[in-house]
Amino acid sequence: MRHIERHRTHRSGWLRAAVLGANDGIVSTASLVLGVAAAGAGSRTILIAGVAGLVAGAMSMAAGEYVSVSSQADTEGADLDRERRELAAHPEHEHAEMTA
Fold first, then answer.
1. How much is the average pLDDT of 80-94?
2. What is the DSSP letter of 9?
3. Degrees (nearest 5) of the Cα angle 30, 34, 36?
4. Most CB within 10 Å of its CB: which of 14, 28, 42, 100?
């Protein structure tokens, strides 16, 4: 009978990005709201600035994550293409590399 272990390390990248994004959003929005409040703005202005900061931060994080994931996918795709070319050109060498 084959033993299968279920590890959760494959989720660590997603979890790291989520924690970083949440922390960044909380700190930057709180800083913005405190700065606007310290300038003596009214409560309506503070609320609008806070909501605008949340929306801008969310859009920024989404765009950054998209670019990051796209770059990683492009890099992995290029690496797979290179390995396919090497396998076609030098199958013996690639076999030796995989079995070493």
1. 93
2. G
3. 120
4. 28
- Contact between 86 and 93 (Cβ < 8 Å): yes
At residue 98, the pLDDT reads 86
Residue 12: the pLDDT is 76
What string of DSSP letters covers 25-82? Answer: HHHHHHHHHHHHHHTT--HHHHHHHHHHHHHHHHHHHHHHHHHHHHHHHHHHHHHHHH
Q: What is the pTM of this model?
A: 0.66
Q: By the 8 A CB rule, do 60 and 28 touch?
A: no
Question: Which residues 6+ apart lie within 8 Å of 24 measured at CB?
Answer: 57, 61
